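Subject: sequence -> structure tokens, single chain

Hey, anyone have a minute? Need the predicted structure for the following. Not urgent.
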Amino acid sequence: MGFSMSLFTSTRERRLWLLALGTLILIYSTLGLARTAVEVLRDNNLLRLSVALVMVASAAVVMWRIGRQRPGRREVAVVALAGAVYLAALVVMERAEERLHLLEYGLVAAFVFWALEERRANGAFGGRSWLWAILATAAAGWLDEGIQHILPSRYYDLKDVGLNAGGAILAVLTIEARAWARRRDRRAGKGVPAIEPPGEPPLSRG
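Reply:
Had a minute. Here:
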């Protein structure tokens, strides 16, 4: 108990770090099987459809959670702009499987960012959460490619390193922009609740 309390500043922080670690473990543990799964789906002309369904389902979950928080006008505009940026990024990607990098490492970056923000709110971290979240996630994405380098069925791809980092950057900047808009809406009294609904990830406290 003493170790846990000295390592984490709250139960929420511990949960967020565990979510980040669990997501990374899931990504790393499936590296050996991922290529086989991609090839099977591609051979059956199901790869693009499968990736599209994953992305649509993920977007639906995000929109549902945002909708529960009763977003104001500025927040809606920021979310719409972020959605357009994500859509543009997905469209320009040549391979369907590349699009999963944005989802995987965007999720890791979000958990790391929220964990750091929780530490900062509790006075245990004085750095820039957005920067450290991006750097940490980019390093994890680089390690991903390093693991693939030693696997017989995979190979190191510098482009994928960039995609992993890009996923982290897009996710963190979207969260920060949304938090900024939410604070502005709250000050303007645009119907944004003063307290986030229970169970929602903490917004950036700026």
